[in-house]
Design goal:
By secondary structure, the chain is an alpha+beta fold. It has 16 helices and twelve strands. Helix content is about 55%, strand content about 15%. A hairpin with a 2-residue loop joins strand 10 (about 345-350) and strand 11 (about 350-360).
């Protein structure tokens, strides 16, 4: 009967079990003990000890009679499997304290397959063989092990181990592509890694591949998107290695006259609306703010910072509202049309915008606030905007404290 029953199992990045091309769904809730036992047996294709099964299922739960509870779960699993329409078989095979799926069935599990390929690849002494194995391993890995299960030690331990294996395989294969100047495969692989783990820094390889194949605009956009992601989600800057890729991109532009012409053409034909304030991401706002302070310090031109916070109508910052994103878009447009072309603004958080107003008095700032309110819809005015003002300290330009007033303002209102 062996070979007639084949389980095809996907546990990496998703949870999907098929048997003879039929989807197997035991219970709606993927975290039940019955489902967990089934997943455990599918992953441990050669079996798992009774003690380990009990530990995995009942750790820290204080079950009075773990053996009896396990027997009940095994009974429910056998019953649930037969209800799916599978061929008649005792699918939970127990022998000498070892639990496994019946030997009459074969199991193809992506997590098991990946681990075997990864270990073979990392142990190989033949460069060509190793590369092929690394490619197969990286292709087999599509995300975290059993992503719908959290807080279970056996899942987390396996997840971490497989992720570390993937990282090692991925880095080794990317370095191979880099040496071989195979930038197409280098881009494809690093792009996949960035989709799976956007905070792990694989963007450096993706950006380098884009630069090497001449896709400078895509490389610059990737840098800007990564800079925004890292700052807004983690509050950190991009890695030094990615900053080096930006320098490389800059050098490439400087040394390529055709590229300079293309950049100038893109700038000259920009469709950006120059009416109203200039919008940018917050990391760019901070860098531009530093530069502008230096420029206007000599003239002594007055400048003000303004923080606009969407509130709940009672003075508290609005959060968790279904309409928040709509209100934020409306506020962004209201700021743009209410301020002048020489002013700039950025979104600091989901409910806040920061604005730099140049050549303006404090009284004029109040007028800008009034115009913003007028440019909001009547419905939105019910959730009024809270404003905070701070003068720009021009004396700190070029020092380590050049963004002090900006940081004090935004942090004080978080």
């Amino acid at each position: 009967m062996s070979g007639n029953i084949v389980f095809n199992v996907k546990f990496l990045g998703t949870v999907d079990v098929k048997c003879n091309d039929m989807h197997i769904v035991l219970e709606r809730n993927n975290t039940t003990k019955v489902n967990q036992l089934f997943q455990m047996l599918l992953y441990h294709v050669n079996g798992i000890s009774r003690d380990q099964v009990i530990y995995n299922l009942f750790q820290n739960e204080g079950i009075a009679d773990e053996s009896n509870s396990l027997r009940a779960i095994v009974f429910r699993l056998r019953k649930a499997l037969l209800k799916t329409g599978l061929p008649e078989e005792d699918y939970v095979y127990i022998k000498r304290g070892n639990y496994r799926i019946t030997p009459n069935a074969s199991i193809e599990c992506d997590a098991v397959n990946f681990e075997e390929l990864a270990k073979q690849a990392l142990a190989s002494d033949d460069a060509d063989v190793q590369q092929k194995l690394l490619e197969h391993a990286c292709k087999a890995y599509n995300g975290d092990f059993l992503p719908t299960l959290s807080g279970y030690e056996w899942v987390v331990t396996t997840r971490v181990r497989l992720k570390k294996l993937f990282d090692r395989c991925l880095k080794q294969l990317l370095e191979m592509y880099k040496v071989q100047k195979d930038y197409d495969n280098m881009y494809t692989l690093s792009h996949k890694a960035n989709k799976l783990y956007p905070y792990d820094g694989w963007q450096t390889y993706e950006m380098e591949a884009l630069i090497e194949v001449g896709k400078t605009k895509d490389a610059l956009k990737l840098y800007e998107d990564t800079e925004t992601l890292m700052f807004e989600e983690l509050g950190v800057s991009v890695s030094s290695s990615m900053a080096e890729q930006l320098d490389k991109l800059g050098s490439q532009v400087i040394n390529n006259s055709d590229m300079i012409s293309e950049v100038k053409k893109n700038l000259d034909t920009s469709k950006e609306d120059i009416e109203g304030a200039f919008y940018c991401t917050y990391p760019i706002f901070v860098e531009s703010y530093r530069y502008i302070k230096r420029v206007i310090r000599r003239s002594g031109q007055a400048a003000w910072l303004m923080l606009c916070t969407i509130t709940d109508g009672k003075g508290y910052a609005l959060s968790g509202s279904d309409r928040l994103e709509t209100l934020a878009e409306e506020l962004s447009e209201a700021i743009r049309v209410s301020a002048r072309g020489g002013d700039m603004y950025a979104r600091y958080s989901n409910n806040q915008f920061v604005v730099l107003l140049l050549g303006i008095t404090q009284e004029d700032c109040v007028l800008v606030q009034s115009r913003i309110n007028e440019n909001m819809s009547k419905e939105s005015r019910k959730r009024y905007i809270k404003y905070n003002l701070a003068p720009v300290n021009l004396a700190s330009a070029g020092t380590d404290y050049d963004t002090a007033e900006l940081q004090d303002m935004v942090r004080g209102e978080e």
